[in-house]
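Review form for a predicted model. The reviewer records the input and the model, then writes brief findings.
Reviewer: anonymous (R2)
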Amino acid sequence: MAAYLIVEIDVRDPAGYEEYKTLAAQTVQGFGGRYLARGGEAQALEGDWTPRRVVILEFPSADRAREWWSSKEYGKARDIRRRTADARMILVEGVA
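Model under review:
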């Protein structure tokens, strides 16, 4: 069953974050993932949630998403993201 990684990101260092985006994208595909949304305009329709940047990734399964997140391949990119941005990230399984 597909799983979705939903990330809210506040970028502190735009130049450094560009390096993260390049490295991360290279690893996502290798784990069967793909971007569904990547920083496009976000509009609150209800509530007071006003994220600056939202990224949504789809993976074949929650296990595969966790493997990607904890992988050596993504590790360097993750370190850069942690230096250049604040992120809140959830993993949710899709419907069967």
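Findings: The chain has a mean pLDDT of 95.
Further findings: The chain is about 40% helix and 30% strand.
Recommendation: see findings above.
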